[in-house]
Amino acid sequence: MAATGGDIQTKFQRALTLQKAGRGAEALALYTEVVMMRPGTAEAHFQIGRIHASAGRLDKARAALVKALALRPAEPAIWAAIEAVSPDIDRDAALNRAGADLPPDAQAALGAALR
C-alpha cells in the first residue's frame, strides 16, 4: 500500500520534534524515510542537511542541501544553509549541480524559476 500524504506529514512532524529535542540520529532516520516515500520533499532534504551540518558532516550536508535547492531554488533559508557549510560557494555552479540530477522538465522549471 502506498504512503499517504498524512503518513508523510506525520513522519515529518515527528522528525522535527525529535530534531528539536536534540535527537538528530532518530530525526535523520525519519527524514530519510520521508524522502524515500516522496523524494520531492524539499523540507526533508533541508533538515537532513541541517542535521549533517550540525554533526560536522559537511559533504553530506552539502549533498542534501543541494537536493533541497534543486526543488526550491528561490528559498533563502536553503541558500543560507548552503553558504554556512560552503562559504566560498559559486551559486551558478551549485544550481548547475542541483539541476543535473533532475529530469529535463524539472530542469526547465528550475531555469524558469530563476529567470
Please characterize this protein's 3D structure.
- The protein is mainly alpha-helical and 115 residues long.
- The protein contains 7 helices and no strands.
- Helix 1 packs antiparallel against helix 2, helix 2 runs antiparallel to helix 3 and helix 4 packs across helix 6.
List keywords for this structure.
7 helices, 115 residues, single chain, mainly alpha
Topology record:
Layout: H1 5-20, H2 24-37, H3 42-54, H4 58-71, H5 76-85, H6 91-100, H7 104-114
Helix pairs in contact: 1-2, 2-3, 3-4, 4-5, 4-6
**Order of SSEs:** HHHHHHH
Rg, nearest Å? 14 Å
List unreliable stretches of 5+ residues. Answer: none
Sheet with most strands:
none
Q: How far is the N terminus from the C terminus?
A: 40 Å
Query: How many strand elements?
Result: 0
Number of helices: 7
Q: Report helical residue fraction.
A: over 70%
* β-strand amount: under 5%
- Overall structural class, as computed from helix and strand content, comes to mainly alpha
Describe the structure concisely for a colleague.
This protein is mostly helical and 115 residues long. The chain contains seven helices and no strands.
